[in-house]
Amino acid sequence: MRWAGLFADLAAQAEALERSERAGEVDERTRAELGELRLRDRLRAGVDGPVRLRCAGGVTVAGTLTRVGPDWVLVAEEVGRECIVPLAAVLAVSGPGRLACDPVGESKVAARLGLRSALRAVARDRSGVRLHLVDGAVLSATLDRVGADFVEAALHPAGEARRPAAVHEVQLIAFAAIAAVRREV
What we know:
The chain is an alpha+beta fold. It has four helices and ten strands. The chain has two domains: 36 residues; 146 residues, SH3 type barrels, CATH 2.30.30.600. A hairpin with a 4-residue loop joins β1 and β2.
């Protein structure tokens, strides 16, 4: 009997040690996987849900998260208005749940549609925009051209169409300087 009890005690200790090691390994793997997630992976899981972004330049963007690109997000702010925000300008995010999308689950085509592609779409439709810059400046403009890392913006009064007489200046604005691009749709 004493031997049976001794072996049962040893087996119980070994089982407890194994459970403890497994729990530690699971915790470590969980931390490692979380360390691989990017902000966009968390945001992709929140598409079609509410979001509030605090951005450089004191810009706040709130509404429904509608798209997430590789380096930008699109937020439908209110009826008829949307905002493109470069992820580089995002300081803090409120709203998305605690879920995340698999980083490798994104299609290769979607991964190539960066900020440049999103801004080219805005330039193609010739809509007036409000460019919020990381230094706090707000410019009313129409995007004329989009380069590899800049936009060419024709500055004109808000609410006016881009007409030669209305344009008072054309500026080249680096992508790194853009905190948000708001437009009426």
